[in-house]
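Dear U.,

For the methods section draft, I wanted the exact inputs and outputs in one place so we can describe them consistently. I've listed the two proteins in the order they'll appear in the manuscript figures. Please don't edit the token lines directly; just add comments below if something needs changing.

First protein:
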Amino acid sequence: MQLVFKDQTFSFELLRTASYATYGGADLGECFSTAYRIKEGDFESWYAEWTATARRIHALADSALASGQRVSAREAYMRASNYYRTAEFFLHGDRKDPRILETWEASRHTFREAGKLMDTPIELIDIPYEGTHLTGYFYKVDNSGMPRPTLIIHGGYDSTGEELYLGGAAAALQRGYNCLTFEGPGQGSAIRLQGLPFRHDWEHVVTPVVDYALTRPDIDPQQIALMGISFGGYLAPRAAAFEHRLAACIANDGLYTFRFSEMGRPFMQGKEHADLSAVIGHVMKQHTGVRWAVENGMFTFGAESIEELVDKTEPCSLEGIAQRIVCPTLVCEAEDDHFFAGQPAKLYEALQCPKTFMRFTAEEGAEEHCHFGALQLFNHRMFEWLDRALGVR
């Protein structure tokens, strides 16, 4: 699926941003008009044009709020939040760039302004975690206090807590689920404000979240599910292997190993004696996706070099771990996933728990990574499975 750009990475990130129109996070005309102004493969042009659009929509939101137009303000704040997130996406090559924090904070601020105007209750929550806290949101169907099935969602390699509303929480609320989203180490505020980098042993992140969930009377303790998105397709199953209070686990999409040493192998053909980091560094100059993956990885893993990034990702594997998962597990696969091709099948084969393999295809318009472009279809099929797994229907 190619949108506007020939560059695969730019096309995919445009698709990702535009896909959230389904849940109020974008307007297609705004997305395409912004994309047409961007210079192909140019990170600075990407930032400049998405920031310009975000600021314009942000101003519309402020104006609507000042004139008492609650719905218009909410909608514009939500779109501005998504556009600021998109603008910040390629900035991580220089982790000291002040625009990283400035633009991310604008995305968080506009989302929280939208949240104040929503029809369903949202709580900002702090989850105790190893002497500090993780930031999250708790979305409630209503204020009845009735215990409900609850979906915990975390993102992956580059997501923010605000994006998770569009990426799952909105759909959960529509179906009668409460939803708890959070940012773990390496994500959102945890990396930007606290300097907490990714860790491979994600059970030490999810267990405090489940501990928190069990303190809430509006969460049914027998109906707590966990979904991880993108790199979260490794992180969530890793957590589920050790955290057995979960009633179900969803890997969107499934990921068995996440090692930069393996990602670099295709570029090493015919270069058996070459230095891996040198080869990756060379490819970064020619391939937008590789450049972003390395720069973002160094930012989120707290690595000072490609060599260190390779070392820090070596433990990111479910070998010998996946067999410990006991709850029903859904492994999703995108037919043309350009990030993790073949990985979902490896995870599925390793599982010994009740398991389901769910493939999304190009014929359905759902072939891209995490099924961007077909989020309604994804949520349709995923929640049908979750309803059955939890016995809520």
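Second protein (the one for the lower panel):
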Amino acid sequence: MTALPAAGPGPIEGPLRPVDAIFDRLLALHPKLIDLSLDRMWRLLDRLGHPEHRLPPVIHVAGTNGKGSTVAFMRAILEAAGKRVHVYTSPHLVRFNERIRLAGTLVDDARLTQALAQAEEANGGEPITFFEITTAAALLLFAQVPADILLLEVGLGGRLDATNVIDKPLVSVITPVSIDHVDFLGETVAEIAGEKAGILKRGVPAVLGHQPREALAAIERQAARLGVPLSVMGEHYQAHEEGGRLVVADEAGLMDLPRPRLVGPHQIVNAGLAVEALRVADLGLPAYAFEEGMRSAQWPARLQRLGPGPLTQRAPEGVDIWLDGGHNAAGGQALAAALADLEDRVSRPLVLVVGMLGNKDADAFLAPFAGLARELVAVPVPGEHKGAAPEALAEAARAHGLDASTAPSVAAALEGLAAFPVGAAPRVLIAGSLYLAGAVLGENGALPD
């Protein structure tokens, strides 16, 4: 039998902190055998006095790609309207604190340590996954700090995810579903969508991003069983770019908004989904909040242009460096479309620097870059992760017609760009894993805030 994924801490910058000792103890509690249920969560939440019953109104977000960006847009819009917003996302990039935002501010070490210690004591040493016990600690914090709304992102799947303990959210959101985590969610898009649809609650409205036909059918079946009103992109609402603006239209009317700050055509879809979710939530938000939200939304390592830092200075002068955590087929398609758009605006040779986990489909991720990227440099994913061998990634790239090589690190890959002729400084995309993205941000001295 297979152990559930631990979803433990990613890269940690600097010296160890007191909270890291708790993380080590919590990781040691991980169940040895698979147990797909919410029983551990219910047991722990009961011992903690059911903080899930004392939360502000919740918007629950599941899906394969775009969850974090959609949450980032909603947060920016809500905060522009003066709302105090709790946010729960995963995984983190550099520090665990990024997962928990309390009324607009990342949780500090002292408050985080206290909540984790309380959850650890209540658990009493019983088997529990890292994600489950840290989610319980997050819910405890969200119940303790006043806020107007909680944006709650699913960790894995939906039906049996540790976040799926909310009785009646304001609205459920499902971003586009694609193939990922097949060991735990199923081998087909329909099976995976069925797991995502597990967050739907009886009578609670749900907003869906663009879905493959079989995914939509699976979600619609679950919605029909529960009497869930659906708002489906392309059917009940539309979102598209027009004249450099974002246009979102539904039965309530049309919104003409600034183009989203986040880069790439896929962010038009994510922004439209966020706007529709908040309209369905019926919070009475002013129009200016939607406008400001489009201008101010930030989400690190999602086609983020890297600025000067210890890592980027290893590249030759003039190299344009971008970072993204994309790692599956849909992520590859979205990134390739975004890079093609950048190529249309300012033409540069494209070099991929890719590191991936061993359980990801490298071939599916790389396929959209055929004919777009000039070459690929495969690197290992830093840390104690089961990364794909760089040579295997390079071989997959060659199968798609890319020149490919390996390097021992991202820094070495950037230094190797000196081989490009003068005047042909490339555009570089570092991608393939959120763990790799976190390591890059940490090494470049860019900590998310």
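Candidate sentences for the figure legend, describing the second protein: The two ends are 39 Å apart (CA to CA). The chain is about 35% helix and 15% strand.

Thanks,
Y.
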